[in-house]
Give the backbone structure.
Amino acid sequence: MEETKTFRAGVLSVVKHCYLPRAVAAHPRFELVVVTDDADQPDWVHVRNQNFADEFGIPYVRDVAKAIAEYDLDMAAVSPEAERHCDLAVRAADAGLHVIADKPMSTRLSECDRLVEAVRRNNVKFLLWNRNYLPAVIQAKEAIGSGAIGELQAIHVDFYFSKDAGPPKGSRAEVDSPIDWLQRQMEAHADGSDGGVGSEAMGELQIEGIYPLGYVHLLTDQNVQRVFARTATHFHQANVDNNVDDLATVSLELCGGIIGSLCIGRIGAASHPDIGEIKIHVIGAKGGLVISEARPEVSIYYRDQPPLEFKNERIANENDFLLMDDFARALDTGSEPILNAQAGRDIAATVFAAVESGKTGQLVEVIC
Amino acid sequence: MIRLALISSAETAEAYGSISTRLHRAAWAAYAPVDSGGSGKALGQVTEATSASALIAGQADAFDAVVIDADQAAAQRLVKEASASGKPVLAGATGGSLAALGQADTLLMPAHPWRFLPSVQSVKRSLDDNKLGQAGLLRIHRWLPPGEGVGVLADRILPDADLACWLFGSAPETVWSLQSAANPEYIQFHLGFANDGMAMIDVAASLPSGGDYFSLTMIGGTGAAYADDHHNMNLLFSGGQPNAIRASLGRADLVGQLQEFVDAISEQRAPSVTVADTTRAASVVDQVLESAKSRQVIGGKEVS
């Protein structure tokens, strides 16, 4: 039996859903050895880091440089608030560690550029977390790759997450203070709807846009050149109070003459029986493809079923495992991960351009 | 009982004949072909004229209202003739110049059968009943195989432009569209409505020959409606991978539209589809095509 290296992973902050370090821990090629963060972080960050470390029986070190120096790490799993993603990832890369980072890549394009440069300079591998290994997405990739629909001409992604995000729009009394973004995200940790955790408020485009645009990138292998977007706060008071979108439509012009669109929203739990309506539509020179991202799934209904329990359960979903497999392959062979730093940065640039277009009503060139 | 005349191809007469038993307060009474050789036999025992003009001019006593289904040029001429005779008219394929047709005191209902599709009716009803809250996002994917039925681009996208205006209750404030350089039969348009409403629509007429595809999603502030062919597919096994076959909606669209026409006449009210609706949709179509050509956002904010 061939001996394979087990990669030692440090968790650089874990304040969100923690799916990322859990996926690292679940893969046989990786081992979590330490959780670390900066000492000057607020208490709630330390509490979450400590809880995660305790659960996995590993130490929590309040000094990132020290943890990197003392625990013989191969890689870092970076999962802090969004505004700290790039900073921690750059510090890990500069220490020679390979990096897996949670989405979104950053709240600033300049930070994404800094990360791309650090990954290049240190010759390390970087994977931005994504959903490109969901069974239906793989099926879409295979169908397009087989030539069944001919050369790709247009691609559309509908991406509506149905999780609620706090009180509905219009529910705040005039005498009440606007909802504090970070406070709301911290409260949302309990039900896993804290995808936007951080001090800087982010709209749905910024928080989740990486996923559908990751599909576009995977299926077309092209960058977006120009966007036109409309954005709105349609559902949630926290988004209204913090002036960030929860519904958006984006027209996409890609390299290679491909055109497309993205419709995205945090549409509320009442608007879908499951996690949301997520679909990919592709037009090729010889045909078309309609993919439901949720499939395969099993429907389960029963007496006294909690109203918010999904009636359709996704099955055979190996996305997390396959992402880690992909990353292990990259470390073993030197190949590039399925969504590397440059691709992640280019997607972030598309998101920022769309946000700008939504605010200005103008066409916006994507900075590539 | 309202006596209806039909001016159409024989094929359309077959479709209308198949729904005749479902009509309330109306029955087919007369038929004229739009082209030579057409027969109204499918409508049952009706008065048949050799041409539409002969029917309108010579046998007007045989019917109370007329349904015209013809190509755009013929439809415009026939609407004018029928309206001049004072008969209520339900007319399809008339394009955007309807306002210049007909008489002010004559009922003229443009045919918008897409509004009467059971799936679309269900979505509209849920909006009207305020189940979905304020309309936020309309998403339509409509793909067709090429062929005679798809018409020119402007006619092809008019139904979707109309659906968007109808569901949002107004014309869009901004229009942006993209066409594929590699596929002239493909267009997508992005409409912005008042109160942050938005629509994203793609229409392709480049599928391989065979079935078409339609998907409409309306997302409102408190709910969402999904009318999606993908969801309504059954499976046919005949070797190899199974084929998807769509559960049929029948011709409920024709029944609904025709009954609305009849009811509007009976109740002496305006029909739910008006000339202004067609004119509005046609104007949006013009803007969509202009945006695709000029590569500019129509009606967008001024550049600061």
Remarks:
- Chain B touches chain A at residues 134, 136-137, 139, 141, 143, 174, 176, 178-183, 186, 188, 190, 192, 196, 198-200, 202, 204, 206-208, 213, 215, 217, 219-224, 226, 230, 297, 300-301, 303-304 (CB under 8 Å).
- Helices of chain B lie at 10-18, 52-58, 72-84, 118-128, 153-168, 252-266, 275-294.
